[in-house]
Amino acid sequence: MRILLVEDDLMIGNAVLDLLRSEHYAADWVRDGVAANAALVAERYDLVLLDLGLPKADGLQVLRTLRARRDTVPVLVATARDAKGDRVAGLDAGADDYIVKPYDTDELLARIRALLRRSAGRGEPLISHKNVALNPATHEASLNGQPLALSAREWAVLEPMLQRPGVVFSRAQLEEKLYGWKDEVSSNAVEVYVHGLRKKLGSDFIKTVRGLGYVIPRE
């Protein structure tokens, strides 16, 4: 899952960015409203964590512009503006949820997970296929019902394919799932993580489609 963090405070931004990445999310961070608008036009995100008090363009303006384009990406407003009128204004502008700073990180993560599940049409967070299951809410994985240790990047590569068995993902599509992490994505990053997943899940769980990419077969 890829999240856009829109936050102008350096201390908060760095802390939240580290938190999101520690929870297996790929995250990009911008610090003003103009940069947020540009990122939301150029890229596709699974969720936006949006501050309201931004330089160059207010967060409410960013939100209204986003919804005017009929973009339905979930938006969680996180701001120090705690007056009832501010909360109402944010929700009326198109926010899906609202959390007031300073917030508890566990609550923040719970709200993010809830919005992501809702947007995916899943009330139950479990993603499973054959003998492998992922729980995005707890970031637990299992193989044949037994706990399975996955690195954050192995998870990032496996999750989209497990959600859509039979769909071929190109290397570029899978690299995009790794984008936004602190380290640059190397040219053979996807191959490295697919190799690691095959060692854990079995050599036939992820198939290579020559010239196209990778797929988890339906059967």
UniProtKB/TrEMBL annotation:
One of its GO terms (molecular function) is transcription cis-regulatory region binding. The modification 4-aspartylphosphate is found at residue 51. Residues 2-116 form the Response regulatory domain. GO terms for biological process: regulation of DNA-templated transcription. One of its GO terms (cellular component) is cytosol. It comes from the Bacteria. Keywords: DNA-binding, Phosphoprotein, Transcription, Transcription regulation. PROSITE patterns: OMPR_PHOB (PS51755), RESPONSE_REGULATORY (PS50110). CDD domains: REC_OmpR_PmrA-like, trans_reg_C. Pfam families: Response_reg, Trans_reg_C. InterPro entries: CheY-like_superfamily, OmpR/PhoB-type_DNA-bd, Sig_transdc_resp-reg_receiver, WalR-like, WH-like_DNA-bd_sf. This is Response regulator transcription factor.
